[in-house]
Structures
1.
Amino acid sequence: MGLSPEQLAEISELRSQAQSTLRATAPGMEAHLYKPYQVLDHGFVRVVDYMGDDAAICQAARVSYGRGTKSVQNDDGLIRYLMRHWHSTPFEMCEVKLHVKLPVFVARQWIRHRTANVNEYSARYSILDREFYIPAPEHVAAQSEVNNQGRGSALEGEEAARVLELLKSDSTRAYDHYEEMISSDGQQGLARELARMNLPANIYTQWYWKVDLHNLFHFLRLRADAHAQYEIRVYAEEICKIVADWVPFAYGAFEEYRLGAETLSASALDCVRRMLKGEEVTKETSGMSAREWRELEAVLKG
Amino acid sequence: MGLSPEQLAEISELRSQAQSTLRATAPGMEAHLYKPYQVLDHGFVRVVDYMGDDAAICQAARVSYGRGTKSVQNDDGLIRYLMRHWHSTPFEMCEVKLHVKLPVFVARQWIRHRTANVNEYSARYSILDREFYIPAPEHVAAQSEVNNQGRGSALEGEEAARVLELLKSDSTRAYDHYEEMISSDGQQGLARELARMNLPANIYTQWYWKVDLHNLFHFLRLRADAHAQYEIRVYAEEICKIVADWVPFAYGAFEEYRLGAETLSASALDCVRRMLKGEEVTKETSGMSAREWRELEAVLKG
Amino acid sequence: MGLSPEQLAEISELRSQAQSTLRATAPGMEAHLYKPYQVLDHGFVRVVDYMGDDAAICQAARVSYGRGTKSVQNDDGLIRYLMRHWHSTPFEMCEVKLHVKLPVFVARQWIRHRTANVNEYSARYSILDREFYIPAPEHVAAQSEVNNQGRGSALEGEEAARVLELLKSDSTRAYDHYEEMISSDGQQGLARELARMNLPANIYTQWYWKVDLHNLFHFLRLRADAHAQYEIRVYAEEICKIVADWVPFAYGAFEEYRLGAETLSASALDCVRRMLKGEEVTKETSGMSAREWRELEAVLKG
Amino acid sequence: MGLSPEQLAEISELRSQAQSTLRATAPGMEAHLYKPYQVLDHGFVRVVDYMGDDAAICQAARVSYGRGTKSVQNDDGLIRYLMRHWHSTPFEMCEVKLHVKLPVFVARQWIRHRTANVNEYSARYSILDREFYIPAPEHVAAQSEVNNQGRGSALEGEEAARVLELLKSDSTRAYDHYEEMISSDGQQGLARELARMNLPANIYTQWYWKVDLHNLFHFLRLRADAHAQYEIRVYAEEICKIVADWVPFAYGAFEEYRLGAETLSASALDCVRRMLKGEEVTKETSGMSAREWRELEAVLKG
């Protein structure tokens, strides 16, 4: 992950200093705090802070004075009810702050989720590190032939090797020239805010990203999905594991009613009802497009 | 404040249970946690949870690995710099969750600040308490004659007494009838979602309100201002005291660069420059409207 | 709807003055512009302005230079695709501005949708009109016995009459006293910002509400739903009719993939798959709670 | 600007087709509609649609039924009042949609303004054009020695030439290899979503960007400022010209109370008051840091 010994020491120090607090704490989350979990070749995700737990969701839903928990079972049921009926505001009462290191082209997708707070490392102010995402050979994939915005199978040996060679050499050269341009050794040195424009989109950046649980679930539903680009999906999957330990009831409800759920269109519902009455529904009699019919078949097969 | 013994006991219990955490804690805020601070006759503000402290602001601004503090003095300087130059994102990295009890007409003003998370006590689902805001006699004020949306001096004795009598009796009657309509004693009982419409805007409601520090400062700048309506200003002032204990550096910078600062228009700046050169600038030669000139005079007098 | 002859004349005048523009126009929406459509006893919805049409959604999705339309059929397909796959940003490229008159208790529900722009008539600044929502007898309903936040059947004759009498007399008295308090006839006159607190939640307010199409669809999905409170649902239904004329393709896709669609949980999907394989699934073997099983049965019956 | 003859023809066609509308129109804006205004070497800004005008701001502030204009002078005064007292919601009632072509490193700064709607050209789905920002020689500047995030004077001849040569050759090579990797000529062809990672941050992207007038003013205040990076400032300046023609009163108020205004801190105000009383205030007696004192001196000199 490219953390320096100093950085690792800073993290260790933080993990060694327990404080006393009257706030709600989530033991499952305390175990994760500050630890960097590797994603891709040089990236990571780590939790820097959090607010709330499963009980805090119920407490807000009930606008209660104390912890608001009647019983653990009760809380689970309430959380499932809230998730099922799209009552999103109680989930907004939990918050998490992550430190993420990620390639710029992934960051550009990520930032499209606007309901979050972000502090990104500034390449106007500071010098970026020489770290580039180079895909593992099995992820050097061909353009998909059925999906304009997707990838197909892995490229075959020689072509993959050629791609990797180009990515590596171009990154190296771009960074060499970046350093050369900003150097003040025997010259004035180009402004950092200009020099950064020579760096390709596979360079790593990092940011603090803070988001409430409702909006985080929305992010995860879209980005942990099979259709998301692999390079952002692996971040989403890592975050899923963390959230499952933080708010186990809420995460369980999220799996049941969002991640593992499917929305059936009016036409799809009509087909299912007819099937259940014993009718043999076909693509032709479904009233749906070929593509939607194929999608429905996949959903019903599971 | 109308807290029941049970509610007070729940709060005491919460304050008696310290937990161990690896997160950043703010000692000044721990002292406030859960305690209700009375505002108006039956309202309160209390902190339910918080995330971050002064150091967390710097940590985010530096996208650092550890606590990110070089020295305390250093942090103060950085925070003042960020506030002065409108770098708002590091302040968004702190978050606070409040439980507020407030009259409905105050809630309607408050909710206009949209960048916050809210869970309000539901009068569709539950029965509201018989608690109404009745102003103290010194706050029963006349319509301002110079400001269409403000109040002037306190009403004189008899008129004030008449007003208070009307507010009290109308509230009482409205609540009596509310109870009468929802009662299922010898009748079906009106739906709560309908019965609530009979209740006046001085009835108390309550909510959980969660907001980041940047947006909280924006709220406080507008609502702790002398032009804000008294009934919301007292909430803002109570929150100011809490924030000053939570993030003392950030609050100090807020006082210096926002609360105690003034924005001078292009024309006002021009006047000040001329004055400093020794020119005698008057309303007539200022190039400003009478009202703006009066406002500038007030600013320059202090 | 309580529009004065002057107001109606202002509206007529606006409708009589066509302008020339190079912008995209939606003929279906031009027919609605400015016209007030009555909702409840004194409320209304009317379109004050709009931006974009079906083609504008496609144009944004394609980031195109011209109108971006290849063919009408093509646009319909693209819009359905975008809606089906939760690509929400192109729908955000259409915007509508409504003028709405509505009871305060409805406004309080409405405002919970935060991603919109709002200018409300100010009762600090101005005097509210004497207009209160009094439900039609068939909507004076009992508290639901199965749903804590809902209503059941209409109250029977005498009880309904009593309720209506209370609502009317309390509204009248509250407004009489409001007028009496603010009057400057022989007295100072209470500040409007204070006097308004005596008014009940069934008084009408009004606002300009501006929202993009994506967030409007979100609002409509929740508020045109059978579980929404009747008094807000009628507004949502009126807006649905307007939107159907404005962006017919987008509205059609909204009906197919949102309004008429259903989200099946992971467990519900499992049940449906087993049913389609011929298994007799019962409440007991479904693995779901009684309530969820009941909901699934309802969905599958249609 | 790199618009193809086809694109220019599409734009011409749009400008030739006037429609009839009942909506408010802004003649100053109609003149700009669709026309691309060049920014940097290959970028542009063009207005694709707009909603509202100066009168619409007043109409919303008054929640009026008709156009809401009493007199033109009246509107100007109201708009200045709203701007001066930070009443932001009426300005949110105007909206503009822009099509912008800009280098990726500028887009990354721009997107930090989250309160806007964005549709960006997708490099997952489509192939980017071979267009890179190469600064004009006078903008190839050295790193600032006083400001860590700024630039100083232009680099001298030979060094500037070296920088330009590196930027050009690296861009060319990166794009050559991008094309080579995605080519399906005699090979499978790398997925576009992967190949894009080889492209540097000076490549041009484009998007539709829709924002309300209040948030646009916020963007312009920060980005048309002398401290903003040159490459984003030129976009902001171009937009300023367009807005001045669209809503002349609002833009005038923006210049008077925002762009040309200055916020004086509590300490700075104190200094100014002492100066006006005749005291000779110095850096030492100002109670301010050296940097703040320098900033105040600059403000007071004008």
2.
Amino acid sequence: MREEFRVDLNIVSQLLVDMAEAIRAAMRHATRALLTADRAAAESVIERDAEIDSLYRQVEERVCDLLARQAPVASDLRALVTALHVAADLERMGDLADHVAKTAVRRHPSPAVPAELRRVFTEMAGVADRIADKIANVLSKPDADLAAELDRDDDAMDDLHRELFAVLLADDWPYGVETAIDATLLGRFYERYADHAVNAGRRVVYLVTGETVTD
Amino acid sequence: MREEFRVDLNIVSQLLVDMAEAIRAAMRHATRALLTADRAAAESVIERDAEIDSLYRQVEERVCDLLARQAPVASDLRALVTALHVAADLERMGDLADHVAKTAVRRHPSPAVPAELRRVFTEMAGVADRIADKIANVLSKPDADLAAELDRDDDAMDDLHRELFAVLLADDWPYGVETAIDATLLGRFYERYADHAVNAGRRVVYLVTGETVTD
């Protein structure tokens, strides 16, 4: 019974790793679409969001099946409840990549991001990618130290987010309201992507150490 | 055992109803703070977010305790997993009310919403309040018809959200970029509040009917 549980739990973990890799690829392609007005890249992100949703449903079904068949307790139960939460965060990260891609499509063939904002969005995307990579690693091999690093990455994202607003609010902002609205929403999408990664990371820390990380 | 399970499940349901009432009150007060530059109302929303978070943790603990002690299957198991998801949506709705309140505080004593946008935000807040009321009702007495109404409320919210952008993007928008950024984020907070309510409603429909509602 216990051995069977381990095997099933490993399948759930692998699905979560697959999700983390998929949401990482989605945000990479969405960023490329955004910064290079690459419509094909954007459309592939939008199409492939269904695959991420399907992985999410598979995690849910397997977890519910395991809860029903094996009636786990203690740390096994905690691992399954954590998997449900982490899957929900990853699914949402996929939606946020989809939102970035849709912004690129809406403005195509113009770039949605003007020259003045390319650097800050490139850096936000870099932090997002680092975060997604860490989540995939933490899920393959739970590691409280690595999960805790996500908090620092989130701080870096928040700094970039503030920098974005400083550019938008400078007296010499030349692009008007529409571009500012796009940039505001895009900034929010990257920031929320990081927040969900941190949530997921905290859940993993709690699972490994039994200690809650707070702000 | 079964009778004991019912009693415990009712406690979980009551906690969810308490959460729904708390997030409804939070958004009402946050909206008042926003539209009347009422700093005390805003600060009470921000302080009381901890109560919503505490209710969320209580739901999680009770659900995990029930899973461990009673090893439910079939519809009982589904009810508990649904409770976890609904609680997560409600907790996030509380955060969004908190974000609205924080925007009001940041701009105080100026109003964060200029005269031209008061009507659209008043209507968005009205839809948000109707939605929160329905969620509280659906949770006290599961009702697939009422839950399905949430989709229509969400459409009304999306229409208002589009209307907001039309005002911001009109050639005669007089308030500049900073106010447009605030309004963009505020619009997003109300819209996401509605989205989470719809998610929660769909989970309840699924619980009652076994049928998934899709877009």
